[in-house]
Write a structure and sequence with these properties.
The chain is an alpha/beta fold. The protein has ten helices and five strands, in the order H-H-H-H-E-H-H-E-H-E-H-E-H-E-H.
Length: 253
């Protein structure tokens, strides 16, 4: 299932479908020049349209708006935070330079540090294994340990789960790790666009979690004048990947 999910991630990339469309047009070109030319020009128009950020960000905004950041008034409200991996970059960077690389979802790592400093009774459960199709030999939990140590976090308050590769495995392995303690109130920290799927998985295994979304990618609205091919394609992929993941997890839960 893990391998299949990684291979299917290609279908969430618009350029994957455009490449197939253009390849089909080239195959038809020798015998159906007019049709093939229309397909090629049509593909170019779609490619140009994909650079407008309003549509993919609207899809992301729909995901990000489902949970608000909770107002924390007492340290006794929660046992601590459950943090999902996905914020660290390629481990080879750490091996080469000795610095933990943080990606676009850096807030997954940094916000929990602030929460632990604010609430001395909080525990931190970090869940992240080797989520790449081709293993690098370094798990996210290993990088998390280095990062939290460098940030001065008391590692006696941190528990690392290093085998989860997917959101579903995050939930199952954290539930197994905590046992009955998973029924205590916990904050679940992950990217806002990833939160709907994550909440559903943790609730499905019986964990008592409250969403604490971070790593927001959108504001209240996006102007149609905002155009960025690279940024828009990334937003399209993130949104489509998450909606596909929600659908697959929903029918297999």
């Amino acid at each position: 299932m893990f391998v299949i999910s990684k291979l299917l991630s290609a279908i969430t990339q618009p350029l994957f479908w455009l490449s197939i469309w253009w390849l089909l047009a080239l195959l038809l070109l020798p015998r159906f020049r007019r049709l093939a030319a229309s397909m090629l020009w049509g593909g170019m128009l779609v490619f140009g349209f994909l650079g407008f950020k309003a549509v993919p960000e609207a899809l992301l905004r729909s995901l990000e708006s489902r949970f608000n950041v909770p107002s924390l008034t007492s340290s006794d409200q929660y046992a601590g935070v459950i943090v999902l991996g996905g914020a660290t970059g390629n481990p080879d960077i750490y091996k080469a330079h000795g610095q933990v690389p943080l990606g676009d979802a850096a807030e997954r790592m940094t916000v929990p540090v602030a929460l632990l400093r604010k609430f001395p009774n909080f525990e931190l459960i970090f869940s992240g294994g080797e989520g790449r199709l081709v293993p690098t030999g370094t798990k996210e939990a290993e990088l998390a340990k280095v990062f939290y140590t460098e940030q001065g976090v008391d590692m006696r308050r941190v528990t690392l789960e290093s085998n989860a590769r997917t959101s579903r495995e995050n939930a199952k392995r954290v539930a197994a790790l905590l046992g009955e303690r998973c029924k205590q109130p916990w904050l679940l920290v992950t990217s806002a666009w990833h939160m709907p799927r994550s909440m559903a998985e943790f609730q499905a295994v019986g964990c008592n979690v409250t969403a604490y979304p971070v790593d927001f990618r959108t504001g209240e609205e996006t102007s149609w004048m905002e155009y960025s091919m690279a940024g828009s394609l990334m937003a399209w992929q993130t949104a489509l990947h998450e909606y596909l993941g929600m659908f697959v997890y929903g029918v297999t839960r």
